[in-house]
Amino acid sequence: MAALGFSEQLLFSPNPNAKPLSPRTLSLRPCPCSSHHDPLLAKDKDKDKDKEKERSTRRAVRIAWEKLLRWSRSWRSRNNSPDILQRTSKVAVLGAGSFGTAMAAHLASKNPQLEVSLLLRDHHLCQSINATHINTKYFPAHNLPPNILATTSAKDALAAADFCFHALPVQFSSSFLESISQHVDPKLPFISLSKGLELNTLRMMSQVIPKALRNPRQPFVVLSGPSFAVEFMDKLPTAMVVASKDKKLARAVQQLLASPHLRISTSSDVTGVEIAGALKNVLAIAAGIVEGMELGNNCMAALVAQGCSEIRWLATKMGAKATTLSGLSGSGDIMLTCFVNLSRNRTVGLRLGAGEKLENILSSTSQVAEGVSTAGAVIALAQKYHVKMPVLTAVARIIDNELTPKKAVLELMSLPQVEEV
């Protein structure tokens, strides 16, 4: 028994000078192999810890969201300047194509008291819009707000206008603006919705409009971003950017356009927004060619990534900010135009890739694919700014009938394997 008591003492008390433990004390001490090492209890504890961690994460997310909403309310209260719509009585929209009509409808529905004058050339369509409030050519299933007045008179459209939205094809803009310049107030802000470059001069719309109006100080804003006209017309959530050297004017146009279904960001990088908006149309043709040739998703991703790099190289050489190219007017617009079938430029490329001739494609559609004209300017710009642009140059050569889509792909794939930049 003494030996047994000694072994118990050694087992529970490593100190040889410690007093022997009584049987009662021994019975009250936790066994080393009890709950601490019980796998079922340990598993329950782990579950409790996981649940607490999940609750903490959710709590942190909820707090972050509430902070965002408080910041939003605070920002609005600090920047609550007089609503520009209250000081705007008339807006002119030049061009009753798909996006011009959608913009007119957006402005008119936002403020029923606003007079929206829609300028177009087609007398019959003009009369039809005024009689039925429907643009039968572009939106036969949509009713236009009654405060849109269509006209073929530039004088009437521009008289007493507070803002003018330019929605005409780029290649026709100079001649048209020159013909109406006598009716344009030199202080009338022009908001360009047109994406592209003037083929012969390589000018952007920020250069075309003041030059054609013979007024280098004509207030100018460019509006761009991922926005299909039909979705904009349907009031689906959309985000775009307005860019102007005049920050006050950019904020005014932001107020004029912003609505529950349209977010507008501002920028001072006019060059970046315009170049991205113009060249993404050329890249969309390339994406369509890949789709038409059924070259697969790997090829599509590689091509669009390369095209994005080429646009960035050129735009930054022209003075644009690299951050602009990753924003709404850059990556946002590129993704929409390259990957969605509603894109006119992508459709042109798809049909080219399937073997159709360009003249047949263009003659079968009433809408303008700006990328076809802009592609010709790409080569000249690449040479001017010493930038290698293999994908966009290949599109230009295909359009000029100097290269077949199949041969273009073979030549692009045969380029040297180089370091990514």
UniProtKB/TrEMBL annotation:
Residues 269-409 form the Glycerol-3-phosphate dehydrogenase NAD-dependent C-terminal domain. Keywords: Chloroplast, Lipid biosynthesis, Lipid metabolism, NAD, Oxidoreductase, Phospholipid biosynthesis, Phospholipid metabolism, Plastid, Transit peptide. One of its GO terms (cellular component) is chloroplast. The keyword Oxidoreductase applies. Pathway: Lipid metabolism; Phospholipid metabolism; Membrane lipid metabolism; glycerophospholipid metabolism. It catalyses: sn-glycerol 3-phosphate + NAD(+) = dihydroxyacetone phosphate + NADH + H(+). This is Glycerol-3-phosphate dehydrogenase [NAD(+)].
